[in-house]
Write a structure and sequence with these properties.
Helices cover about 75% and strands about 0% of the residues. With about 240 residues, it is mainly alpha-helical.
């Protein structure tokens, strides 16, 4: 009994924090590993969206007139509003991270809820845009029509039939790029709902905030992707 007492005391002195995983020796080591894993994940996301951006630039160079006319079918007003909404959501997410650092539980929950609301507003506006594209028969492969491009009703120039058909490429990339971005938003909001529940129970304001930090990186990345999507899809060649 006497021989085992020092061992027991040493174990108690080096007892792990409740949120420290058993395969890490220190909280700092766990934090560094988690941050490295998140940055590695974001690198794969950059490569994924980079492929979509590359495809867009290549096809835009090949079918320039079709891409110009196609971009004119998007609403700059709605795109601008969504851009402002996402910028505000980045602010609320950053304030959530700050609240976790300051160990303010109610403030953390409030900022996370604000981020969820702003994300929902973004998705609602995007759904309205998608509905408009369906009504205008601009959804490739389902109900696509070249009528708006071969016989435009506004001041837009009419396109030859072969070039008008190429607008399907533009809208295919539009739905692929904005659709994948929206999917990331849905995933982000779903994770936020879980974080809110755990944050209300004090999970991230008792010294362990790595999860909030890493999710903040994910949310900011999704916002940055939109900052590139907005000018490429909505603004380029507007005055041609």
């Amino acid at each position: 009994m006497i021989a085992t007492q020092p061992v027991h005391d040493a174990h108690e002195a080096h007892a792990h924090a409740p949120y420290l995983r058993h395969h890490f020796e220190t909280v700092e080591q766990q934090r560094e590993a988690s941050s490295f894993g998140m940055w590695l994940f974001l690198l794969t996301e950059i490569m994924f969206f980079g492929g979509l951006f590359t495809a867009y630039l290549i096809y835009r160079n090949w079918y320039y007139p079709a891409f110009v006319v196609g971009s004119h079918q998007l609403s700059i007003v709605l795109g601008t509003i969504n851009t402002a909404v996402l910028i505000c959501s980045s602010f609320t997410m950053a304030m959530g991270v700050y609240s976790a650092e300051m160990k303010r539980r109610k403030a953390l929950v409030g900022w996370l809820l604000a981020t969820i609301i702003l994300g929902g507003v973004f998705l609602g506006i995007k759904a309205d845009e998608y509905h408009e594209k369906w009504e205008k028969h601009h959804v490739p492969g389902l109900n696509f029509s070249v009528q708006d491009f071969t016989h435009p009703t506004d001041a837009e120039p009419a396109l030859p039939l072969d070039m008008a058909q190429k607008t399907q490429v533009y809208f295919s990339l539009y739905f692929a790029m904005t659709g994948m971005h929206a999917l990331h938003m849905v995933i982000g909001i779903s994770i936020l709902l879980v974080l809110v529940v755990k944050a209300w129970g004090g999970a991230y304001t008792a010294g362990h905030m790595t999860t909030i930090e890493n999710f903040g990186l994910y949310w900011h990345f999704v916002d940055i992707v939109w900052i590139f999507l907005f000018p490429l899809l909505y603004l380029i060649s507007r005055h041609q």
